[in-house]
Amino acid sequence: MNQRQDIERQIATAAATGLISAGYQITIYCDEDKVLSRTDDVTAIIGAMFSSDSDAFMVYQRQPEAEGQWERIGWVQFIYGNSGWDVINDNTVNLENALQAATALGEELEQKFS
Questions:
Q1: Segment 12-60, tens digit of pLDDT
Q2: Total-model pTM
Q3: What DSSP letter does each residue of 95-108 carry, written as one string?
Q4: Sheet hosting strand 54-62, strand order edge to edge
């Protein structure tokens, strides 16, 4: 694994960990294909990523009024192959708090390697 790929993996792991720690579950899409259904297993999430040029997290939150029901509340877009630290290409604003550690790591790695 080269340095860029390692950086992408670190940031993706921080993003998944932050989202899961905030109580969310994640479904992963690679291009248009679902590659992993809603889960809170960070190891499985990272294992399902990096097979193409991009992945997207669809992020779900449990609905308190409907036991066992989950609602999609946002998304995170990953694009691979650029500088590494910029792997999170875009996301919905409502997830920014859960992505703080990933964002901070990306900024730190940008300063270190750019």
A1: 999 999 999 999 999 999 988 999 999 999 999 999 999 999 999 999 9
A2: 0.94
A3: GTTTTHHHHHHHHH
A4: 33-39, 25-30, 54-62, 70-79, 88-91
